[in-house]
Amino acid sequence: MKEIEALGEQVSVAAPSLTEVLIGAHFKGGALLGETLDLASRLEVLPIDDPVAAEAGRLGAELLRRGHSLPTTDLLIAAAARLHQHILVTRDEDFQRIPGLAVEGY
Q1: Which of 54, 84, 86, 102 has CA 20 to 30 A from 9's CA?
Q2: 55, 39 in Cβ contact below 8 A?
């Protein structure tokens, strides 16, 4: 995130991704929690609304037709990124299966 911010770009995160990060931060607590909350305050949070849910359902069905599946949370993250025309930065290679989704690893 710091590298992206240094380029002057706004960093966005889908609400389910932020939830996953915050679970870990709250579990660990201490300074990590404070740093994570500060970081989160600078993010644009992409909501999970009706269009995102509909896109996630469509993507999930398309993957099932191809013999693949993803957890619902991942489908919601992918749908939010795709509908907002964002690049999904992730270490999870499963997102590469989603057609039309711009994915960048780190």
Answers
A1: 54
A2: no
Query: For 60-74, how does the pLDDT look when each residue is reduced to its tens digit (9 = 90+)?
Result: 999 999 999 999 999
**Inter-residue contact 46 to 84 (CB < 8 Å):** yes
The domain spanning residue 9 has which CATH number?
Answer: 3.40.50.1010
Helix (H, G, I), strand (E, B) or coil at 10: coil
Q: How many domains does the chain have?
A: 1
pTM for this entry: 0.88
Residues of the domain holding 68: 2-104
- Residue 88: strand, helix, or coil: strand
